Amino acid sequence: MYGITVHDKEEFCVLAVFGKQLRRSFYVRKNRPVIPGELIHMDACGPMENVSLNGSKYSVVFKDDSSRYRQVFFLKKKDEVPRCLGIFLNEACAAGNPAKCIVSDGGLEFNNENVRKILQQGGIAARTAMPYTPEQNGLAERENRILVETGRSMLHTKELHIFLWAEAVNTACHVLNRTGPTAVKGKSPFELWFKRGPAPIDHFRVFGAECFVHVPKQRRRKWDKKAAAGRFLGYYDEKDGYKIWLAKTKKLLLVEMLFSSQKKSLHQYR
Fold this sequence. Notes:
Layout: H1 14-20, E1 40-45, E2 58-64, E3 70-75, H2 81-94, E4 101-104, H3 113-121, E5 125-128, H4 138-157, H5 165-179, H6 189-194, E6 210-214, E7 227-236, E8 241-246, E9 251-256, E10 265-266
Parallel strand pairs: 1-4, 4-5, 6-10
Antiparallel strand pairs: 1-2, 2-3, 6-7, 7-8, 8-9
Helix pairs in contact: 4-5
GO molecular function, one term: nucleic acid binding
GO biological process, one term: DNA integration
Protein name: Integrase catalytic domain-containing protein
C-alpha cells in the first residue's frame, strides 16, 4: 500500500484475542467402544411446560455408545434420576451388557451422593464433560433433541394435545431402537444391544391413528356401545400390546393382541 511500510514480522495481538477469540474445533474420537455397555451417556431434559399424563415434567435418556441403543425415563422431579439409573443398570446387566463407564454433563441430578453410591456399588466409572463443552456428552444431548423434535412432529401431525409428549417421546424411542443407524451395517440398536436376530417391526402402527377398542361385556350394560373410539399412543411390553387414548373419558388403555384391522379396529382391552 502506497505510503505505508509493511514488515513481514508477525506480532501477537492481545486486543485481537479479546475481540475475536474462537473456541477450537472439537475433535472427533477415532476409537469408539465396540462392546455394548462399555460407555453409556446420560442426559436430562426439562422441565416441560406441560405435565404429561403420568405427571412427569422431565425425561432422562441413557444411550449406549457402541450399539446406539437408548432408553428413556419420565420423571416428576429431577431427584428421581438415581432410581432411573438403577433400573437402567439392572436391565443392562440382564441384557448381558453390564455398564463399565457412565458419562454425564455433571449436573446436580447426576453429580450427587445417591448416584455416586449406585456407581460405586456396581464398580462403574463416572466421567463428567468439561464445563461449556456439551460435545463431550454430545451423544445423549443430541438424542434428547432428536426425541423431542420427533415427538413434537408426531403430536402436531395428528393434532394431539401437548400433554401427550411423554407418549410421543417413548414411541419415538421404541421405533428408533428398531430402525436407527449403527456402526454395523444392517444391524439396528435393538439387535446389537439384545444380541438377537432382526428386530421385529410388524407391530408398528401410526402414532395418533384413530382406532376402535372392543368393550368386553363385563364393562358395559345391555344397550351400551360395544366399541370405544380412541387414538393409538404407543407400545407396552416390548411388542405384545398397545396404548390407546380415549379422549372422551381421558383414559389411557392397555390393549392386548394385535390390530384386527390395519385401518381402525383393535382387540379388547383389559
